[in-house]
Design goal:
The complex is a heterodimer.
Chain A (H helix, E strand, L loop, with lengths): L4 E4 L3 H10 L6 E4 L16 E2 L10 H9 L3 H8 L3 E2 L3 E5 L2 H16 L6 E4 H7 L9 E5 L3 E3 L1 H14 L3 E3 L4 E7 L2 E7 L2 E4 L2 E4 L5 H6 L7 E12 L10 E2 L11 E4 L5 E4 L3 E2 L10 H14 L8 E13 L4 E5 L2 E8 L5 H19 L24 H10 L6 E3 L4 E2 H9 L7 H8 L12 H12 L18 E2 L2
Parallel strand pairs in A: 1-2, 1-13, 2-9, 5-15, 13-21
Antiparallel strand pairs in A: 3-8, 4-8, 5-7, 6-7, 10-11, 11-12, 14-17, 14-18, 14-19, 16-17, 20-21, 22-23
Chain B lengths: L1 E4 L2 E4 L3 H12 L5 E4 L15 E3 L8 E2 H14 L3 E3 L3 E5 L3 E6 L2 E6 L2 E4 L3 E3 L2 H4 L9 E3 H9 L3 E2 L3 E5 L3 H12 L3 E6 L9 H8 L6 E2 L2 E7 L6 E6 L12 E4 L2 E4 L3 E3 L2 H5 L30 E4 L5 E5 L2
Parallel strand pairs in B: 1-9, 2-3, 2-10, 3-6, 10-23, 12-20, 14-15, 14-20, 15-16
Antiparallel strand pairs in B: 4-5, 7-8, 8-9, 11-21, 17-18, 18-19, 22-23
The chains are: A alpha+beta, B alpha/beta.
Bound molecules: flavin-adenine dinucleotide (2 copies).
């Protein structure tokens, strides 16, 4: 296979880069070891589109996040991604925390986030009634927002694909080839690809990829973050992203709504060595409970429907880097896209593309770039008339498969037939939320297995939860 | 939109719904319909293919589907209508909104019966730490896969929870050639019937670990095993007793929760203790000579809405 650019990694960053590159007359291939687009960190995070108010002023990360935030109004509209500008609050409960507020405001100012406001305790309680009543005052950061992280990545990818980008999934990059100080290709476990440019957006594994070209002057360790997701029906909710005042050691644990109306509580921050350890722990989950009660004393963690964990790619030495090298033409290395990468992805798309162009990559825009992408029509969000129309067009839209989130067979079949098809239980879950509700698939999973087997034309034992080896059933009964 | 008009609309065609519909009909309701999202009536009984049903009511031993079929026959013979493959989306003050492959259907009613059954508690509800591989099933989902879809869920199984569904599944899995390594119960006593313990566990040599729980799930793509530990009198795991059980499947039989969404949507008051509707056990019912085969017939806080539970 031959192409101009290979992007390694189909997470938020890789897919955003691919979408931006697809505006140019270039051939682009995205390679990912996973069975679906969506990345690793990109599917297990707090789903917040940050403003950059608390970044380290002057850093690349600060510039990217500050630039990215306003881009989401348009991205969410053009790419049909649930997004909501709910705003964040940063309440202070102790004198020590209260005295920190001016510094935090000054930092926001340094980051050019000029719309951060001071609110009194009374004002905060008025907009967030479940807040700990001891609140003395705090900051309001109006443009901190929430997004559907799964759909964001799928949308970037689908739009890139509409514009000619090729996605090679379940394909692992195992080496990069160079000659005379130039990139010549990448080797994968499914064959070689000749190319002139490589973008390393491999997240947690970006150090391994960098080692293939001898540019691993850093290493990455995972920093685990555990979360609770609470039922939409939980009685103690918040309207904003409620953030704790950070300490020297940690940014702390927050509580916020998701775009679908659940409550998200977490994350922890635990440094690990094992890049594959995605397990939740009793200690981690207990620590969330203790911390979040300081913000929202009434939080009902018993209403949890799931707990999960994500791994932040923590660079050593720290910092978000986009590096190019005088002695290696065609290579862009991203590293340390750690805690704000979901947000930064939009700006990184532009930044990386521009970096390649500066390097000498030909830059001719397509006149026929398709700027918008439509998601799968949602039965549950449609009004009665639209529901009737959806069923008329496809009778399977009348059969509800996931009872908790009201997802129909029509939507599931459509997800399987999209250009970047959902081929696993988790891929369907991330696109549609079937199995993400309060019964967590107890009701729909057996049916989704049947639908996937039928649509893919495989026996049920070949239907996977996600990766190779994650089979759900072993075969027919005796 | 298609509109149907009935005196009594029953949501759910499980044993409770079937009995309610039949009884309403027998007691003078003119037009009665059951709306059921499945393609057949019978509810959960369709997947309970083991015998043991009907001993009290029919004085003979039937399997779940046989038992349900008897009720279905009686109800249909009495003139009850059914609307299958139809999900009730909303319960309004005087009509149900249902979704079918032929379009939305509005079922107008004078009285509605809420008989939607239960859902099972999940891993997330009871917060078992560890990884999130394939191979973790609620017992009812596994029962459905095996008995209705004829798909086997695993080879080496640990079951958490000693409720009847868990024990019945221990036997079912063993009969299908799986090895059930243990049934683990956090309480110091059995949750289900002693009869099931004898017939489903003891007869097959399946160990029952009382005062134990699963403390951690291990496995990347598929379950590779679980850690099991004894618990103290506060139900907290005693870490020194933790032991690894290699297995590819974990079944959870850790309780049922009422299926409440419709009731809540309809404005029925909920009880924080039972998580079910606030009911009046002694309420007057609109049809006389009422004796359905259910242990509790109860009216909710809404005047025309009843919620019935089977034994
Ligand atoms: C707990 C937690 C909370 C967070 N909260 C937020 C938040 O609220 N807001 C925010 O903006 N950010 C947040 N982040 C950060 C954000 O999630 C990440 O910065 C971002 O997702 C990184 O995206 P990525 O595409 O670089 O990496 P990933 O999503 O990890 O994608 C990397 C991809 O590279 C692939 N890959 C790796 N090696 C190879 C190989 N050899 N061959 C082929 N493919 C390979 C992987 O399979 C993976 O799909 C959070 C992160 C965590 C963990
Ligand atoms: C997994 C499991 C196994 C069991 N095993 C046994 C056993 O071995 N022996 C025993 O005696 N008891 C068993 N029980 C208990 C027994 O099944 C129940 O007591 C009995 O089935 C309850 O009857 P029901 O009609 O209330 O509910 P169900 O049988 O659950 O029927 C409810 C019906 O309502 C339908 N419904 C729900 N919501 C909607 C909606 N919105 N629109 C349309 N239709 C809807 C459902 O599809 C279902 O058919 C088991 C229960 C479960 C959950």
């Amino acid at each position: 296979m031959k192409t101009d650019v290979v992007v390694i990694g189909a997470g938020a960053v890789g897919c955003a880069v691919a979408r931006e590159l697809s505006k140019l007359k270039l051939s682009v291939v995205v390679v990912d070891k996973n069975e679906d687009v969506g990345g690793d960190a990109s599917k297990s995070n707090s789903a917040i589109i940050h403003t950059g108010y608390d970044a380290s002023p002057g850093t690349l990360e600060s510039r990217l996040v500050v630039a990215a935030n306003p881009m989401y109004d348009r991205i969410s509209r053009d790419l049909d991604v649930p997004f909501s500008r709910i705003g964040a609050i940063l309440p202070a409960f102790t004198d020590e925390q209260f005295e920190k507020l001016p510094f935090l405001k000054e930092k926001a100012f340094d980051n050019r986030v000029y719309d951060v406001e001071y609110l009194t305790g009374e004002q905060l309680l008025a907009i967030e009634p479940n807040l700990n009543p001891e609140v003395k005052g705090g900051l309001y950061i109006p443009r901190e927002s929430i997004i559907d992280p799964f759909l964001l990545v799928v949308a970037y990818a689908e739009n890139a694909q509409q514009n000619g980008v090729n996605f090679l999934l379940s394909t692992k990059v195992v080496d990069i080839t160079t000659a005379g100080g130039k990139i010549t290709g990448v080797k994968t476990d499914a064959g070689d690809i000749e190319c002139d440019y490589v973008v390393n957006a491999a997240g947690l594994y970006c150090d391994e990829i960098a080692s293939y070209v001898g540019k691993n002057d850093y290493y990455v360790n995972p920093r685990k973050g555990q979360f609770y997701i609470l039922d939409k029906n939980t009685s103690v909710k918040v309207n904003h992203i409620v953030l704790p005042i950070p300490t020297k050691l940690t940014k702390g644990k927050l509580m916020c709504p998701t775009v679908h109306g659940n409550m998200l509580v977490g994350p922890t921050a635990e440094d690990l060595d094992d890049k594959t350890d995605k397990s939740t722990t009793a200690e981690g989950l207990d620590s969330i409970a203790a911390d979040v009660r300081k913000l929202i004393p009434g939080v009902r963690l018993n209403d949890t429907i799931t707990q999960y964990c994500g791994l932040r790619p923590n660079r050593n030495p720290e910092g978000l880097h986009v590096d190019v090298y005088d002695d290696l033409y065609g290579y862009v290395n991203l590293s340390g896209v750690r805690s704000t990468g979901l947000t930064a992805s939009a700006a990184l798309g532009v930044y990386v593309t521009q970096t390649l162009i500066r390097m000498g990559m030909p830059a001719e825009y397509k006149t026929d770039f398709i700027a918008t992408r439509k998601g799968i029509p949602s039965f549950h969000k449609a009004n009665d008339e639209q529901k009737e129309e959806l069923i008329r067009q496809n009778p399977l839209y009348g059969r509800v498969i996931c009872r908790c989130e009201t997802i129909t067979e029509g939507e599931i079949v459509e997800a399987i037939r999209r250009p970047i098809p959902a081929r696993s239980i988790d891929a369907i879950k991330r696109r549609l939320r079937a199995g993400m509700g309060r019964c967590h698939g107890g009701f729909c999973r057996p049916k989704v297995i049947e639908i996937l087997a039928r649509e893919l034309g495989v026996p049920a034992e070949e239907v996977l939860k996600n990766q190779k080896g994650s089979y759900l059933v072993t075969g027919r009964v005796k | 939109m298609k509109v149907l008009s009935y005196d009594v609309a029953v949501i759910g065609g499980g044993p409770a719904g079937l009995a309610a519909a039949q009884t309403a009909k027998e007691n003078g309701a003119q037009r009665v319909i059951i709306v059921e999202r499945d393609t057949a009536l019978g509810g959960i009984l369709q997947q309970c293919i083991h015998p043991g049903f009907g001993l009290t009511y029919f004085k003979e031993e039937l399997t779940g589907p046989e038992y349900a079929a008897r009720f279905e026959e009686k109800a249909l013979a009495a003139g009850v209508d059914k609307l299958l493959d139809a999900m009730v989306l909303e319960v309004g003050k005087s009509a149900l909104l249902c979704s079918t492959t032929e379009g939305l259907v509005r079922v107008e009613y004078k009285s509605a019966v809420l008989a939607m059954g239960c859902r099972e508690r999940t891993r997330g509800n009871i917060r078992i730490p560890g990884t999130r591989p394939a191979g973790i099933f609620t017992a009812g989902a596994a029962q459905r896969l095996i008995n209705r879809q004829n798909l086997m869920v695993g080879k080496q199984v640990v079951i958490l929870g000693s409720g009847d569904i868990g024990m019945i599944m221990a036997r079912r899995l063993t009969l299908e050639g799986a090895q059930v390594k243990a049934v683990v119960e956090i309480m110091p006593y059995l949750a289900g019937l002693t009869r099931n313990r004898v017939q489903c566990l003891d007869d097959f040599g399946i160990p029952l670990l009382l005062s134990h729980t699963v403390t951690r799930i291990v496995g990347k793509e598929r379950v590779e095993g679980v850690y099991v530990a004894a618990v103290d009198e506060n139900k907290r795991p005693i870490s020194e007793t933790e032991e690894f059980f290699p297995c590819d499947t974990l079944l959870l039989s850790v309780g049922l929760l009422p299926e409440n969404e419709l009731s809540k949507g309809a404005g029925v008051k909920m009880c924080p203790v039972t998580n079910g509707p606030v009911v009046n056990q002694l309420s007057r019912l609109p049809f006389r000579r009422f004796s359905p085969p259910v242990t509790s017939s109860t009216s909710t806080t809404l005047p025309t809405t009843f919620r019935w539970r089977a034994p």
